[in-house]
Amino acid sequence: MKYSCLVLDHDDTVVNSTATVHYPCFVEYMGKFYPQVQYTLEEYFLKNFDPGVYTLFHDIIGMTDEDMHREQAYWNDYVQFHVPEAFDGMREILRDYKNAGGRICVVSHSLSGNILRDYRENDLPTPDLVFGWEVPKERRKPQPHCLYEIMAHFDLKPEELLVLDDLKPGYDMARACGVPFAAAGWANDIPEIERFMRQNCDLYFKTVDEFRAHLFGV
Question: Residue 63, CB half-sphere, CA atoms under 13 Å: how many?
Answer without folding.
Answer: 20
